[in-house]
Amino acid sequence: xxxxxxxxxxxxxxxxxxxxxxxxxxxxxxxxxxxxxxxxxxxxxxxxxxxxxxxxxxxxxxxxxxxxxxxxxxxxxxxxxxxxxxxxxxxxxxxxxxxxxxxxxxxxxxxxxxxxxxxxxxxxxxxxxxxxxxxxxxxxxxxxxxxxxxxxxxxxxxxxxxxxxxxxxxxxxxxxxxxxxxxxxxxxxxxxxxxxxxxxxxxxxxxxxxxxxxxxxxxxxxxxxxxxxxxxxxxxxxxxxxxxxxxxxxxxxxxxxxxxxxxxxxxxxxxxxxxxxxxxxxxxxxxxxxxxxxxxxxxxxxxxxxxxxxxxxxxxxxxxxxxxxxxxxxxxxxxxxxxxxxxxxxxxxxxxxxxxxxxxxxxxxxxxxxxxxxxxxxxxxxxxxxxxxxxxxxxxxxxxxxxxxxxxxxxxxxxxxxxxxxxxxxxxxxxxxxxxxxxxxxxxxxxxxxxxxxxx
Length: 456
What we know:
By secondary structure, the protein is mainly α. It has helices spanning 2-6, 11-28, 36-49, 64-75, 83-104, 114-122, 134-153, 162-175, 182-193, 198-222, 225-234, 244-270, 276-295, 311-318, 320-324, 328-351, 353-356, 392-400, 405-417, 429-436, 438-443; strands at residues 369-373, 384-385, 422-425, 444-448, 451-454. It folds into 2 domains: 10-356, no CATH class; 369-454, no CATH class. Strands 2-1-3-5-4 form a 5-stranded mixed beta sheet. It is globular and about 80 Å long.
């Protein structure tokens, strides 16, 4: 396989993409249930298309452009099980950027279309990567910024196109807020490995702030800027330290990419065959890895899809195996190691799908206006979601801090603005809330355990 993709012929790559797309149809036929966060994003898009405002009417910490993306998806009425096709198109485009950047700027000569193959395989290490999460979508603009950085590093003469880096970084951040830390990566990469001037640094910062300012003005105009700040103060801007179990589970999925990346990095340390331009690329990639470690502390939740920003850097380091190693057998081994690791991970996920994916709905309700006070988001399947509680982790503090007057007022507004016909109260919040909102308790009667129906 190494010899096939090492050639300059594009035919093997086209064949790979064709097989890839055909295999998606096969995977689609498995009928595997979606992940909980896929349903959350699906419901978020629905609520936005109904005229509700993100952060004010919908309590969720999805970044603004990602929320817009899900709104567009639902505007076209694209079902959840088509996510596999959407994410694959995104990964194919990212693979193209990865391939073209390495090939055009000769970061690794004489390896043909292996960058495309490496990137494509690594992004199949988990079935969770085959769904368009904010981290995956925003990664496209990080790669565009990386391509522009490599372009600027070719010579010591940095031009005014550096403003594009700031713009790309801002767009990536508005898809996934943790990517805002990568602005430091972009700045350091240019300071260390290019002749960037103070004026051009300011220009890059202007590009970044210009896009961010437009976003702030938009939310200020809609009157929900305060709500956006409150939501992100409680979630995305809080540093978290991963637990040992979480690290073990994530490392198991990323293990093949980590092994290939460390192997390639070790070859770099031992080699003297790397040219000046390629050295800048390797060092820029190392800064990416360091930045990614710090970004891990800011992700909304420690799941695989939220940490995939490690993969491009690991793929880049892994390519050194094909560039610097003289043993053809080891090169073949590296490719098949990735393929075997991908197959093993997918089989393991399918075996544990009942634990990781959304369980079947248990309520007998169908086509009803339903509000769920709990994490049982699967109960919305087959019903119309009512209310702002698409993300229970953010909504739960409202019910646990009812001694704060502002929380009671906010909950009263939520129930008045979008009153449901049924409330599924998995955590007995109605009883607590009824003390502060007696009209709510009078308006609903319990018809089943945990289920309340509005009085006619």
